[in-house]
Structure to design on (253 residues):
């Protein structure tokens, strides 16, 4: 699994216009439906990040470092990315999203998940179903934290309920992005109850890209590998389905 992110807060009006030109008609229409400039930026940036990520799958990626990689606006707005964006089939699938069954690339079938929040977008690409979520961290009140925790799986509640209020708020921010990643991976979104699947810690690693926390997740016969990275003031998480035979598409830092 490869994970990318890009910041959008400082995009200029010129860059926003460039992004609109770089998008095919279907994505331009989607972008134009938003009234706020912030939402237009994120819609455009997410689509171009998807095009950029798929474009990398057609190349030798030996130079891409592990962990989440920041993609600068210049790369998203490059002519090559625009050409690739126009060549993709953005027609939504039954669930309303493009590439629901993956995209066939020179390296094989690749699955994509996109996420955006105020000021940032993220994408995860893997050779198995994948989910990604990026969120701006807002401090939760103790009451909100405890109420949210009550909706979690019993095993998760047992693991987290003994934490002090401040630490619980921090951990729940991480857990929420992990939960969102799984809900996107399954394609069920918020229709999948939070207490119907469980996520547990599986260690951490420190690299040049920061500290990565690893997790495992399961629901009935389904299993996933997950990872979460702090990108203050954001938290980025991604999940990938366990592949047949017990191997996984997830590579640690």
């Amino acid at each position: 699994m490869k994970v990318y992110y890009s910041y959008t807060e400082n995009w200029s009006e010129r860059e926003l216009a460039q992004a609109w030109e770089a998008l095919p008609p279907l994505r331009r229409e989607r972008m134009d439906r938003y009234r706020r400039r912030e939402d237009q930026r994120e819609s455009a940036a997410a689509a171009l990040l998807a095009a950029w990520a798929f474009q990398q799958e057609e190349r030798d990626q030996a130079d891409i470092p592990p962990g989440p990689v920041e993609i600068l606006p210049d790369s998203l707005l490059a002519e090559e990315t625009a050409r690739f964006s126009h060549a993709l089939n953005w027609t939504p699938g039954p669930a309303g999203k493009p590439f629901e069954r993956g995209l066939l690339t020179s390296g094989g079938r690749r699955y994509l998940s996109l996420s955006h929040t105020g000021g940032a977008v993220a994408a995860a690409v893997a050779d198995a179903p994948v989910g990604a979520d990026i969120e701006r961290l807002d401090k939760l009140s103790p009451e909100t934290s405890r109420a949210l925790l009550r909706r979690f799986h019993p095993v998760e509640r047992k693991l987290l309920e003994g934490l002090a209020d401040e630490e619980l708020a921090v951990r729940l921010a991480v857990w929420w992005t992990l939960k969102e990643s799984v809900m996107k991976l399954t394609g069920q979104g918020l229709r999948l109850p939070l207490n119907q699947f469980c996520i547990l810690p599986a260690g951490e690693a420190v690299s040049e890209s920061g500290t990565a926390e690893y997790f495992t997740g399961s629901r009935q016969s389904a299993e996933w590998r997950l990872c979460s990275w702090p990108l203050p003031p954001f938290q980025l998480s991604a999940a990938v389905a366990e592949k047949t035979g017990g191997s996984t598409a997830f590579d640690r830092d």
Summary: Confidence is low (pLDDT under 50) at residues 245-253. Residues 165-186 form the longest helix (22 residues). The two ends are 11 Å apart (CA to CA).
